[in-house]
Amino acid sequence: MTMSTIEFSTSLYHNDTNCDLTVADAVWVGTALLHFHNPSVPAFSTEDITATVQNAHLTKGLQKSIYLHVNQHCVANRPPNSNRSCALFAVGRGDRRLFRLGDKRDPARAGAPTHPDWNKLPSKYIFLKDWYEEVWNGGSACTATDPLLDLIGSGAQLWSDEPADQYVANLRAGWEGRP
């Protein structure tokens, strides 16, 4: 996905002054804005998130710092590297989405924040708090399931009358000598 295909205008939130958010909080706000305005897009490229943070003037942080936060520092399922924030989740190929309750995180990030301190969020972005809690992490949020994890327990009835090892041994009985 490229910015040209993403429906979102930072001019809605842009003024000539920076919000002066921390880089981690700015990354969360930028990603939340992208999701809010593009609900059918499951994840965004590192470059798109970085550009949104910069174009909306969410922080005074440098482009390199913003990029590092999107790529590593704020990514829950990557080992922490100076920042333990769990604002984002890596879905592959450099794409990121906001962290959701239930997402797996690196064990070293346990207990780390998943969103900005709501009391420090600028008033023009406070609507993102309700959206995040009610839509993104709420029951109406669209979550992709892992088809392999969905199979857990699906074959339990096959060996409910005997231990699994015995079941496999019975299946293999008579295999000796067959080509």
How would you portray this structure in words?
- By secondary structure, the chain is mostly helical.
- It has one domain (3-136).
- Helices cover 31% and strands 6% of the residues.
- The protein has 5 helices and 3 strands; from the N terminus they run αβααββαα.
- The chain has helices spanning 23-37, 46-55, 63-73, 127-136, 164-172, and strands spanning 44-45, 88-92, 95-98.
- Strands 1-3-2 form a 3-stranded antiparallel sheet.
- A hairpin with a 2-residue loop joins β2 and β3 (95-98).
- α1 crosses α2, α1 (23-37) crosses α3 and α2 (46-55) packs across α3 (63-73).
- The model has no long low-confidence stretch (mean pLDDT 84).
Order of helical and strand elements: HEHHEEHH
Estimated radius of gyration:
22 Å
Query: Total strand count, please?
Result: 3
| Silhouette | elongated
Euclidean distance between termini CA atoms: 51 Å
Mean pLDDT: 84
Please summarize the sheet with the most strands. 3 strands, antiparallel
Q: Count helical runs.
A: 5
Task: Provide the domain count.
Answer: 1
By secondary-structure content and strand pairing, the structural class works out as: mainly alpha
Q: In oligomeric terms, what are we looking at?
A: single chain
**What percent of residues are in strands?**
5-15%
Q: Fraction of residues in helices?
A: 25-40%
Concise synopsis of the structure shown:
The chain is mainly alpha-helical and 179 residues long. Helices cover 31% and strands 6% of the residues.
List the helices and strands and how they pair.
Elements: H1 23-37, E1 44-45, H2 46-55, H3 63-73, E2 88-92, E3 95-98, H4 127-136, H5 164-172
Antiparallel strand pairs: 1-3, 2-3
